[in-house]
Specification:
Number of strands: 0
Shape: globular
Oligomer: single chain
CATH topology of the largest domain: Cytochrome Bc1 Complex, Chain D, domain 2
Number of domains: 2
Number of helices: 11
Largest sheet: none
Radius of gyration: 17 Å
Structural class: mainly alpha
CATH architecture of the largest domain: Orthogonal Bundle
Length: 216
Amino acid sequence: MFGLAVPAGALLATLAWSSPAEVSAARGHMIVVGGGPGGAGAACFSCHGLQGQGDAGGAFPRLAGLDRIYLARQLDDYASGARPNPAMSPIAQQLTAGDRQSTALYYAELSAPAAVEPSSAADGRLVQWGAMLYAQGSAERGIQACANCHGPAASGLNRVYPPLLGQPASYVDAQLRLWRDGVRHNDIYDVMGTVARRMTDEDIRAAALYVAGISP
């Protein structure tokens, strides 16, 4: 999210996809609905929805349609501790590399409509400010425009810069705060951390509200 302009080739080199013979979307589906080694309590659908649509109330992101390499990398980072999370880390650590890649492949093949969150009238000023940050950033404070990396329609530009379209405001808000606080740091060159540390609470809320309301 919200990244500095970094050569995509340099980043993609770290996202190499290994392909064990056992990797398949069917295997990923079994993990999503059954939890794999973690059992039913670790089933992905319980938080991310049966169609991978996410859950705004729980700040759970949409996974459907995201790039398989990006998703696999996030699961690897949960497992290694590069992206610590009290819920996801234990689950990812129980999965083999093949399990994680199969899960990523399954979600990548899903197609889910973007869930647009309507903003209340009270949020109008924040949404307008978020739109400005997304499109133009803030040069005086060194905040890069989100569109530079995630695209003007929030559909992402490549496997490094994921789409933000359809992500709940609660999730976007939470991730920006984790980047800013240094809790999440699984990013080459600290791209997101550098930008997030320059954002105020209001900036973060505004950007999250705007992103959540972008229409496909």
